Amino acid sequence: MFPSTFDYFAPKTVEETIGLLQRFGYDGKILAGGQSLLPMMKLRVAMPAALIDINHVDDLHGWKEEDGYLRIGALTRHADLEKESALIERYPLLSKTAEWIADPQVRNRGTICGSLVHADPGSDWGAAMIAMRAEVEVVGPSGVKRVPIDEFFVDTFTTSLDMDEIASAVLLPAPVGKVGARYMKLERKAGDFAIIGVAANVIKAYDGTILDAGFGLCACGDIPLRAEQAEQYLIGRQLDDETIEQASRLAQQSARPATDLRGTAEYKLDLLRVFIKRALQEIAAELK
Amino acid sequence: MRITVTVNGREYESEVEPRTLLVYYLREHLELKGAHVGCDTTNCGACTVLLNGKPVKSCTVLAVQANGQQVMTVEGLEQDGVLHPVQQSFWEEHGLQCGYCTPGMLMSAYSLLEKKQDLTEEEIRKGISGNICRCTGYVNIVKAIQSAGRQMAEKKQLEQNQSEVIGSGN
Ligand SMILES: Cc1cc2nc3c(=O)[nH]c(=O)nc-3n(C[C@H](O)[C@H](O)[C@@H](O)COP(=O)(O)OP(=O)(O)OC[C@H]3O[C@@H](n4cnc5c(N)ncnc54)[C@H](O)[C@@H]3O)c2cc1C
Ligand code: FES
Ligand code: FES
Questions:
Q1: Which stretches of B39-169 are DSSP H helices?
Q2: Tag placement on chain A: N or C end, fewer CB within 10 Å?
Q3: Key word Iron-sulfur present in the record (chain B) (predicted)?
């Protein structure tokens, strides 16, 4: 099916983009990879009067490392990070998550920022960005600000972005220490959204203790969630059979999965425990 | 809106409505009926074409987004009446029944094989995970892609040998 009619704009700068957002208000929508927005428009779930295609804004392309952060521009596609060897050692969770998003064609178009702004509780990037303690760089009429990922997600399909703001990049703090990460996901069929997904990002000090543990949970509530108790518990401890078992149980306390066609809440909670346990076991072996 | 798109090496200029999807632009404006529409949900991959060398689902790209870009469709595979190895292999290995998914499958397979010819079964299955076939299952499709990879590798080797022979003659 065809989307309903709209006016199309292809601004060249962020300022121009914001100007268009101010002009159209809620009737204007940013088009990045279009892999969530266009399917919704084809089904007429979304009918924006104006599409503001940001693909021609040069400043939003590419990623780079700068003063303590990895800056991933708004137009970085899932596929751009899938096999990026320069990032594998320090940010292993990026490629481990990217390969789980949809399928190769969707990964070639869809962007990471688009996925975050779409704010689907089943967003794999949402969980991964929580685990990496990301911040979203937001530009609006009054300038640039950084929003911690936990404050960015407000509700299902709702972020803290104002109608005239754009997510220009996602920023990851550069880790100090050895990093191990896993993305674990169960899906009904290849390329599907998660029945449940778990992102684990562990940073180990050189004395073997955990400097930081980040756990993001996907499809476990209204928004991507943080398993905070499990994180707090692990910091300063060693990864051994006992702490891994304990952390995997504590992670269950942060999750509120719903019983639906994909499975019962009990089943999903148990899956979550098993995933965290497996992820930590694999990370422990890798970081030994 | 006026757009210029290079499709299979040839430049086309057309007037399109912004809501025109790339797949309809190819099928209805350019009369290239290779890319199929099999779903409304970006799931089936029957509409797969290459946009600037990368496979995309052309039902989920606007034609205006292809303005100034390069598109390759299944019609671009065959050259001077000779089937591309990937087409030849789908035929030889019976990698299709009704053929509805085939144009998309061929484009995904082509893109995989351009990068690497000796693919494992797992790499192939992951590579075509965005293409659904309702008829055959994937066994013969995987076989066809492996066979095409062998043919492409042999051809490459042959070309290399020839250039070495020519080189040593100087
Ligand atoms: C078949 C299929 C399978 C999928 N499977 C998965 C999956 O397994 N896991 C998963 O997590 N996702 C999955 N998705 C969802 C999709 O891949 C993501 O949501 C993502 O790619 C969207 O990014 P985009 O750039 O395409 O965003 P768009 O579709 O272009 O935009 C999405 C929304 O975000 C807004 N927006 C985009 N960029 C910005 C920006 N920089 N600033 C402000 N607003 C912005 C748009 O206005 C729109 O409201 C799937 C999608 C499809 C079609
Ligand atoms: S028609 Fe494009 S994915 Fe099905
Ligand atoms: S051959 Fe019929 S859908 Fe694949």
A1: 85-92, 102-115, 121-127, 139-169
A2: C
A3: yes
